[in-house]
Design brief:
Blueprint: H1 2-15, E1 33-35, E2 39-40, H2 49-56, E3 61-67, E4 73-79, E5 88-92, E6 101-106, E7 119-120, H3 130-137, E8 142-144, E9 154-156, E10 171-177, H4 185-193, E11 199-201, H5 205-210, E12 213-220
Parallel strand pairs: 1-7
Antiparallel strand pairs: 1-2, 3-4, 4-5, 5-6, 6-12, 8-9, 8-11, 10-12
């Protein structure tokens, strides 16, 4: 029965394009789903580094620096580091062997903003645009202006349907950035209007015209009981 289960998991990962050897087969399949307040794939607030090895296989788990939302780096652990569209940066509460997850950075280091396997139940992922987020939220929301450390980070869903992303335990944070486009005087002028460390409404005309898209996603377990 154990052999059958291991083969079943291998087939799941093969279908996702992830390379996992029989020796590294995981006991629980990864569905790439981010569930605010609960989990990201098989990872929960109680997951330890040892659990990561059991979940994803030793050769897919490496300690390294993680790129965080403001562009800085912190020591942590990377899962699937050689596959940018599947990679997962893990930061810990401390450096003990049984430390639990503090936060997750999805597709960390990926420059392919339109390609990230991690996603929410609403299919929010890298490349999801501001207008789509506004529709899913059911109302306008607030975000920081661009061109600084926390530029483009969504600061408030204003009580909309996506407020559930802001769970105290398992909070999901999104950062947006203007998508690539041919340069023009009009585009430069629009971006200049929203390049400031102030808050803006998603409904502001320059934001609507540029329609920035998600280029960074993270999940925090700081608010969880330990």
């Amino acid at each position: 029965m154990q052999t059958v289960r291991r083969l079943f998991v291998l087939l799941i990962f093969a279908g996702c394009g992830i390379s996992v050897s029989a020796a590294d087969a995981v006991p629980v399949p990864n569905d790439w789903l981010i569930v605010p307040g609960k989990r990201a794939g098989p990872i929960t607030p109680k997951t330890t580094r040892g659990d990561l090895v059991r979940l994803f296989g030793a050769r897919n788990v490496q300690d390294d620096e993680i790129v965080i939302s403001d562009g800085g780096r912190e020591p942590g652990t990377i899962v699937f580091g050689d596959q940018p569209d599947a990679s997962l940066g893990v930061l810990w509460f401390d450096d003990t062997p049984d430390a639990r997850v503090r936060s997750l950075v999805f597709c960390q280091g990926s420059e392919l903003a339109e390609k990230c396997r991690w996603h929410t139940e609403d299919s929010i992922s890298f490349g999801t645009g501001l207008k789509t987020l506004e529709r899913l939220n059911g109302r306008k929301f607030k975000l920081n202006g661009f061109d600084w450390g926390y530029g483009g980070s969504i600061t408030s869903w204003e009580g909309g349907r996506l407020e559930r992303l802001s769970a105290a335990c398992g909070r999901v944070t999104l950062r947006l950035d203007p998508p690539p486009a041919p340069p023009s005087d009009e585009r430069s002028s629009l971006i200049a209007e929203i390049e400031d460390n102030s808050e803006f409404w998603s409904s502001d005309p320059p934001m609507q015209a540029i329609d920035p898209a998600v280029d960074h996603m993270s999940m925090s377990f700081r608010g969880c009981s330990r």
